[in-house]
Each structure stands twice: as C-alpha cells, then as structure tokens.
Amino acid sequence: MTARTRRSLLGRDIGFIPQEPMSALNPSLTIGHQICHHLARIGLRTAKVRRDRAVELFAEVGLDRPQALLDNYPHQLSGGCCSGS
C-alpha cells in the first residue's frame, strides 16, 4: 500500500487509539489545534465546522466544558480529567 493510499484511509476506515497518554498529544499545541488538524485531514473544510465538530465529539464522550477544553494545552489537564482548566 502506498503512503498516499494509507493516509486516505486514516481517520475514515482506520482508527488509532494511543496507549501512552503523555506522548499522545504535542505539548506545544492546543488540544483544539491538534484535533482540528485531524478533522481537516478527513475532509471537514472550514475552521468553524471543524471546531464545532470537535466540541460535539468531546461532549459526546462526556467531557465537561468541551469548548474551553479545545483552548487548553495537554499539560493543563490532569490524568483522567473531564474538564478544561
């Protein structure tokens, strides 16, 4: 499989669940930046649509204050935390 073909499947047909919480997210980028980057790769075109979808996804899994969570950096959350700081 070519790299291009593999990239086209990621996020749509192939999922990734990181097992190491301390290395799953880039500490220098906000959580929102990172998730919205992924949502752009799978076809959500505008920043507003991506951000709205990220908020929906966080709310769907029971995270408190999903809008605020997007503006946090990974180090601002505690392990198992359900709310932004």
Beta-strand percentage range = under 5%
Q: What is the overall pLDDT average?
A: 84
CA radius of gyration: 14 Å
Low-confidence stretches: none
Order of helices and strands: HHHH
Largest sheet: none
Query: Shape, please?
Result: globular
Per DSSP, the total helix count is 4
Structural class: mainly alpha
Helix residue percentage? 40-55%
Number of strands: 0
State the end-to-end CA separation.
42 Å
In quaternary terms, these chains amount to single chain
How would you sum up this structure, described in words?
Keywords: Cell inner membrane, Cell membrane, Membrane, Translocase, Transport. InterPro entries: ABC_Ni/Peptide_Import, P-loop_NTPase. It is found in: Membrane. The structure is a single chain. The chain has helices at residues 3-9, 31-41, 47-60, 66-69. The chain has 85 residues and is mainly alpha-helical. The protein has a domain at 27-78. Helix 2 crosses helix 3 (47-60). The model has no long low-confidence stretch (mean pLDDT 84). Helices cover 42% and strands 0% of the residues. It is built from 4 helices and no strands.
